Amino acid sequence: MSVTRAGNPAEIQTQGTWLGTVISIQANYYSVQLDNELDDELAGTTSNQIEVSAEKPVLLCIRRGLLKKLGQQIMVGDRVAVEEPDWLGMRGAIASIHPRQKFLNRPPVANVDQILLVFALAEPNLEPYQLSRFLIKAELTGLAITLCLNKRDLVSDEEAAEWTKRLSSWGYQPLMASIRDDEVLPAALTTALKDKITVVAGPSGVGKSSLTNRLIPEQNLRVCAVSGKLGRGRHTTRHVELFELPEGGFLADTPGFNQPDIVTTPESLSDYFPEIRQRRAGANCQFSNCLHRDEPGCVVSSKEDDEWERYEHYLALLEEVTKQQQNLQQQRNAEATEKVKMVEDGKVLHEPRLEAKKYREKVVIKLFKNSASTCLKWKTSKS
Q1: I want to staple 120 with a disulfide (CB 3.0 to 4.6 A). Which of 61, 151, 192, 220 is the partner?
Q2: What is the pLDDT of residues 281-340, one digit of tens each?
Q3: Residues 6+ away with beta carbon under 8 Å from 360
């Protein structure tokens, strides 16, 4: 007997193999939520005639030894095939991993569709440069971005409208939310999350876990108040885990961090600013390698355009990534000219790296000549 997974007729599962999604990983165990709801016909009944719930089950799985030998790592969000599930113990073994469409390294999540970036309008106050860094970090992933501004109840209507107008000039349309007052979250937010795997990101203390609790009331994630002394939140999420949305799809709650690292090249940084993309779409800079720092004929750094608010943010990040590139180049040059050796007393010794063609080939030839000369002398003495 075979069953087709709802929503994707191309994927077929047999009685002994089930398809599912990895929703969490702890140590060497993987929690896999199966696609199909169980009934007696699908799951089969054991000798004890155990009653099986009609909800989608979650199995605690190990991975087959072959996957380990092949070096195939399993990530949260992976689509996997589970063999011969034990319905009594709700356990199984992951036999294979489906090809990943997309994946993030930090946080480690596979098959992600979009990023839900959550910031607070107050407590902690919304800081433009920090928000800009998070937006650039999200742009670096190449995923769709949904920006949600939480704690709408703590600011006035005028301030909320001003932030909406301001962020629109940045190229983003924020969704306002109030966990305390709103009985129902904005329909645009729930629609954006439906049937997708969404990574929730943002600084600590902005209400990511509270928002997830509202979207999925059954989860009851731990929340923590904002520190009064520091004016920022404390980490409440410790590891990556997927939570199924009632309307379909998953939310990936991730540990918060206050300053995301921006890793790119100076030449590519401008690609992650919607304002720059818009300006370059209408005209081209005079020089193809323009970094938009007041170069002649630059269409981005024109001082006549007062709406280009984030230009200072761009210059600060440009200086940062330029220094990163310089440090990386210096490190590569050091590795090319030096080699590191660990001596017996535990000290690290730096030695100059010899050029292979200039020194090493001569040494090999000299050793070969000495060896040949020794053999010839030995044969002469024997004769």
Answers
A1: 151
A2: 888 898 988 999 988 888 888 656 556 889 999 999 999 999 999 988 887 776 666 666
A3: 354
Calpha distance 21→32 (Å, rounded): 5
Tokens of 241: 């885990």
Strand partners, 176: 149
Domains of the chain: 2-99 (2.40.50.140), 104-253 (3.40.50.300), 274-334 (no CATH)
- Strands 79-86 and 17-26, by their bridges, are antiparallel
d(CA 205, CA 376): 81
pLDDT at res. 45:
44
Paired tokens of 135: 């937006």
pLDDT single digits (tens) 119-165: 999 988 999 999 999 999 999 999 999 999 999 989 999 999 999 99
Distance CA(134)–CA(121), nearest Å, equals 15
Confidence band for 277, pLDDT divided at 50, 70 and 90: very high
Are 61 and 97 spatial neighbours (Cβ–Cβ below 8 Å)? no
Angstrom distance (rounded) from CA 4 to CA 125: 49
